Amino acid sequence: MQPFEYNFDFHRPSYHFVPPFNWMNDPNGLILWKDTYHLFYQHNPFESIWGRMYWGHAISKDLIRWKHKPIALSPGNNGPDCDGCWSGITVIQNNRPVVIYSGNQDSQQRCCLAYSNDNLETLEKFAGNPVIPDPPSGYSLTGFRDHCVWHNDDFWYQIIGAGIEGQNGAVFLYRSKDLIQWEYLNPLIIGDNHMTAPLSAGNIWECPDFFPLGDQYVLIVSIDEKKPTYTGYFLGDYKDYHFFPNKFQKLDYGDMEFYAPQSFVDDSGKRIQFGWIAEGRSVDAQREAGWAGVLSLPRILSMQSDKCINVQPHPNIQKLRGDHTHLTKTIIKPGYDLPLPKLGAAVEILIEFSAQEQITARRYGLKICSSPNGQEETQIIFHHDTCRLEINRHHSSLDDQTLKIPRGGLLNLENREGLYLHIFIDHSVIEIFANNRQTITCRVYPTHPESTGISIFTEGGSTSIKQIDAWKMQSIW
Ligand code: DQQ
Hints:
This protein is mainly beta.
């Protein structure tokens, strides 16, 4: 059940995970352990703004419906995490879960451990924390935090995100036999200052996630820059403890609205990722709402043959599908928008447009979250000539304190390929999966509860749809 006092907040999602109250940011410690998925997350239980971080905790049998658990980690009265328990992960050592996280003290982050002796019901901090008291010598760092840990050939390996003063983001590599004594090896990679906007090397690389996918290695980093802040991924080779990237791109065009993602492998070998969907409304509005921050839907990552990551929503989400609308082949002409029947504020849409070569439109797409009087509306637009996919939020809300900058980027489509959008709308959350290879995640805050209209539009020529399916989505609470 949701705490009843949130019923008034139209912007609180109904089928995405949200904290029971107050603030959440990064997902942490994701793991499947003894048939139960565990989600920990950065949590400020006292205010709906970022602050002195705790680890919130929730469990699930299907990654979709979650049960809130008591807080799992709290900052110490003194010691290395007295100013917050920052992001981290969970591994299993000798059949026992171990959490590795960044303790924050006086704005210094240091690697700490906590053990669970009761299958992740509770966590006990290691008395010898921090296990890595200082960053590697010889660097002047802007940050040194967040962990990704794996086991290989008798060793635990760990990478930690960092930033080098006046230079780049970086990731440092360590190894250990026991998770307690760590030997520094070398930088896994140091960012290249010559990377050009919008993909620059950044001030600090937060929340590194490193894993093999297909025949490549993937390094995901959340890049904290002055502006913009976003998550990107490198594809490359891992050899002799060094990572050699050959490609870098944005993971999600939502920039800071899909940040600090973390992934894990389920028991069928699927790589599952969750990210933090930040707020786009004012701090006053957050305080008034009494909560802030949303977890993305679970995404399955795999490698596409053309060497980019394939991203798809987890099939378990389909269990939430309710009332259904289905439309088959339809041609849409400029000025004659095709409306879908109203399905409410929690909706899933699958829409397949015809191949590019059959479309004469200059721009086409969907109008969503539209109010009956047309004052509020968000547009998902594909620019046919430039292959840019974008969310235009300019008229998404009459509230001028909400984030309205457009989000989007390149989605290269072959002439024979059609635009294929899988869209999830959940009150204030929008997640778009485009052609299984590019996502855009963002927030909108329409002021009118009737701002739930959906229609298909075209400009400068006609477009045609092969089929549309849309479902009203059930609440997970
Ligand atoms: N959030 C955590 C840090 C991490 C940042 C603190 C990313 O560990 O670098 O809440 O959002």
